[in-house]
Amino acid sequence: MHGADPHLVLGLHRSRHHRDILTAALDLGVTALDTAAPYLGFRSHAVLAETAADLLPKFTLSTKVGFFPGAGGVEHSLDPGRLRLAIEKATQELGREPDTVLLHNPERSLTSLSPTDGHALLGSACTALVDAAREGLCRTWGVSSWDTRPLGMVGVGDLPSPDVLMVRAGFLVGIALLDTTAVLGRVWQAGETWGMSPFGGGNGNAWEDFDPRPFLRPPHDGLSRVQAAFRTAFHLPSAAAVAVGTDNPVHLAELVQALGADVDTTAVSQYLRALHGHRQS
Question: pTM of the prediction?
Answer without folding.
Answer: 0.94
